[in-house]
Amino acid sequence: MTGAAAITAAIEAANADGRPALVPFITAGYPDRQEFAQHLQVLSGCGDVVEVGVPFTDPLADGVTIQRSSEAALKAGVSLDWILTTLQQSAADRAAPVILMSYLNPLLAMGYEQLAERCIAAGVAGFIVPDLPWEESAPLRAALEPRGLALVQLVSPVTTADRMKMLCEASAGFVYAVTVTGVTGGNKPVNESAILDYLDRVRSVSPIPVCAGFGIREASQVEQIGLHAEGVIVGSALVEVLEQGGDARAFLQSLGGKQHD
Amino acid sequence: MNATIDNAEQLLAALVAGELPDRNGRYGPFGGRYVPETLVDAFSRLEDGVNRWLHDAEFRAELQMELRHWVGRPTPLSHAPRLSREWGAEVWLKREDLAHTGAHKINNAIGQALLARRLGVKRIVAETGAGQHGVASAAACARVGLPCEVYMGEIDMARQAPNVDRMKRLGARVVAVTSGDRTLRAAIDESMREWVSSPSDTYYLLGSAVGGHPYPYLVRELQSVIGREARQQMIDQAGTLPDVAVACVGGGSNAIGLFHPFVDAASVQLLGVEAGGHGSGLGEHSATVVHGSPGVLHGTYSLLLHDADGQIQETHSISAGLDYPGVGPEHALLAATGRASYTVADDATALDALNEVCALEGILVALETAHAFAGAREFARANPGAKILVGVSGRGDKDLGTLLEHSV
Q: Is the CB of residue A156 less than 8 Å away from at least one CB of chain B?
């Protein structure tokens, strides 16, 4: 199975279980480099797809939590090279597909061909690249698509109807529906009817599962959004739990994650 | 700089013909639009607005009127007799320091503010490094009647306190940026985050020829008034074109404004002077073209100061306005094709040049501009008798605190 197909299949399996897929996000190597592999194992036990953030110095689409975690991870020496090496070493321990969230420049710096090869070796299933709009994505796709790696497209509440359809058809693995016009980790309510209508619109034009992200922190949100999307992405709230030394497994299970490792 | 261009002549011909940026916002390999999906629609609307208004007769007439009667254009071209004697060259100064608010930034700010008003936005956000773009934005927003929020790194706020006060008096809200490197780069990050949060009713008034398409084009077009005037003034006053046009380069807006109208004049060399800081190692300077390599930052593919992992590096310059790890994509093209050359002036050399210009010509230039003078002086030494046009990007009142700190 290709990486893209594995992501879709994991989300569909959760839905077949009668629940929205849970996609937990962590910044690689944060809050502690040594515990990264262990965190990954917990997350892949509770989550259906795991999103691993590649820290970047200028994370434009992210709010304070992920910004802070990126800065600390970089200071601790986390790099894309280290992340891929660690993922490769721990590939056998993971139950869920891993998708990397990275800004473009670290990917460019590694070189797309080398990146794609190393992702295959590390068991990475695909990418989310928040500063890479579809129009600029051909060079990266040329490296990812032949290897079956997914490039997940994002849509937002201000994406026009025609463009939304185009992006959903172009996406692989799932479609990332950003729930707010803003950065990650916001406190705006994300279960208002306008947002739910928007998710219904995305879903109506998407041939693949839709996962909603940005600002999701509570079980009630997961429950309600789960009626309008195939999955939810939980980032900043989980990063905060981890940085406070909390129990990631208990948190994710409280959100409706898988109940077994 | 390790970008290579195979078809330099073709690309330069296209640039001269007005065909660059192309429809994808590219200057050869550089440029483009690398922005979050939330901003794609806002960028598209901006591009539509630029295409519709920038060369519209009514808009041009309004802009011309503001440039003439509010900004104070054309700015003079001053012959610099004592510098000329000292350097053994013929030195001419294009005086953007005499524009309203004291720097070239106002050309761009008033143009974009007029555009924003036509786009029907409710407010403007801007970032600033040295404070000159913040002051220009605040003034332009007051002029067109739009509320303005200026993001500024807290380090820059400390070193440019008088400009912070000016912005506030002009009605802007100044937001201190405490994240990242707490200078211009972090201020751009925060402005873009703010824009992402309300893309429909906010206009981002970007201060340099950087960012995703169409900003580098928009800023170049608005700043090219500098080079167009200077070219005509050189012919009128000196009777000939200069041998070289020299400008300081941070993001590169004043330099591209001076250079672009001379790109087709093969006899005119174009020389950009970057901030050499206090060394050539990463973190010790802001010399993006001289020491950088290609990558993506703030929406554009251009030359950057970043490490082997693609992480953007901190920069240093005595001049807040040059303290930025990227450069506009048109400069990257000019450098890669060899049409313009780029050099560095370090902090001490820039301070020395500032003192020389002050003493010999009675002009206190900005620390940014002092780098251009340092580069021009080097050029004069190597080319005796040359006719040198220096872009005086701004006045130096704002830098008095820094000058006092350095006992100069």
A: yes
